[in-house]
Design a protein that fits this description.
mainly alpha, 2 domains, three-stranded antiparallel beta sheet, 3 strands
Length: 319
């Protein structure tokens, strides 16, 4: 009997959490990329600590491979976003350490009713095993890295800020003949629909059109600033946070010269950076429509806009 893969589980559990965006923004950090390149040889102890804990996230084939190696050790705690179900259905239960006389290190303990149909048991056990592997041990102590307590209104800026960053990189590194090469802040903000009220209409006067264009430009620039703030904080192990981060010397003159040269050579960002990031963060997602369809970077941006994000939903329903 064919069993479901871990990818199905990842797309509904890890990829819909803020931890997914934590790593996505960390991979946007040029300094963290260079710290990985320099094997932690950096003058900023905050960045070195994140490197020691997160490892070289650029060496893994995909996000899920990194997660299974490092994620649960860094993030697991009672605040974990991935839903924990003790009762798995059909009478089957996942046992915690407090349910057992002796802690079973490295083991997943299940209580299985004798009457349970074997095929049903196989399916449930496999799903429970995969979820436990992805989620990690259910610690009763605080996680090493915990989510910053950001209000819902500010959380709603996270994905637009990331999409703005990706689009800006794609435009900046596009080739002369690329359709994106002529785009400015207004065109990028309009494509991302950052300000629906400022959509241009045929009935708009020239002055009104200019007002709307300036408004869209300003909102797009605000999103770029937001992305920069999130990246600056994630470099020092805080997410999602936009607070000012104290500047600190990170590189020697030789390191800075080598970093500048690597960036100039296109080793950091390139025209296909968005495609590579999509392949890393969501390797199981097919988003490209083929030749003659919208630009690949735009297809990626549209897909990111439609990802499930339960952390953006109010925890309490209004009565």
């Amino acid at each position: 009997m064919d069993m479901p893969t871990a990818n199905n589980l990842a797309s509904t559990a890890i990829n819909s959490s803020l931890y997914f965006w934590w790593v996505a923004f960390l991979r946007c950090s040029k300094d963290f990329w260079w710290c990985c390149h320099e094997n932690g040889n950096c003058m900023d102890p905050r960045l070195v600590k994140v490197w020691n804990d997160f490892g070289d996230i650029f060496k893994y084939e995909c996000f899920m491979h990194w997660w299974q190696d490092r994620g649960p050790k860094l993030f697991d705690s009672p605040q974990m976003e991935i839903k924990f179900l003790k009762d798995l259905g059909f009478g089957l239960q996942l046992l915690l350490s407090e349910d057992l006389a002796k802690d079973q290190t490295g083991m997943i303990c299940l209580a299985i009713p004798k009457y349970l149909d074997s095929l049903i048991a196989q399916s449930i056990i496999y799903e429970a095993w995969q979820l436990a592997r992805v989620r990690g041990k259910h610690y009763t102590v605080n996680a090493k890295y915990q989510l910053y307590d950001l209000i819902l209104r500010s959380k709603k800026t996270i994905i637009p800020a990331y999409r703005s960053f990706v689009l800006n990189v794609s435009v900046t590194n596009s080739e002369l003949q690329d359709q994106l090469n002529r785009w400015g802040d207004f065109e990028m903000g309009r494509h991302l629909n950052l300000s629906p009220k400022d959509r241009l209409r045929e009935s708009d006067t020239l002055d009104r059109r200019r007002e709307k264009q300036n408004s869209v430009r300003n909102i797009f620039r605000q999103n770029k600033i937001c992305a920069a703030d999130l990246i600056a904080n994630v470099e020092v192990g805080i997410f999602p946070c936009k607070n000012p981060v104290e500047n600190c010397a990170r590189w020697s003159l030789d390191q800075q010269s080598a970093l500048d040269h690597s960036v100039a050579q296109g080793l950091w960002h390139s025209k296909d950076w968005a495609i590579k990031e999509m392949a890393y963060m969501l390797p199981d997602k097919e988003v490209f429509l083929g030749f003659g369809e919208p630009h690949q970077a735009l297809q990626i941006l549209d897909h990111l806009a439609n990802l499930d994000a339960p952390f953006l939903k109010p925890k309490r329903k209004k009565v």
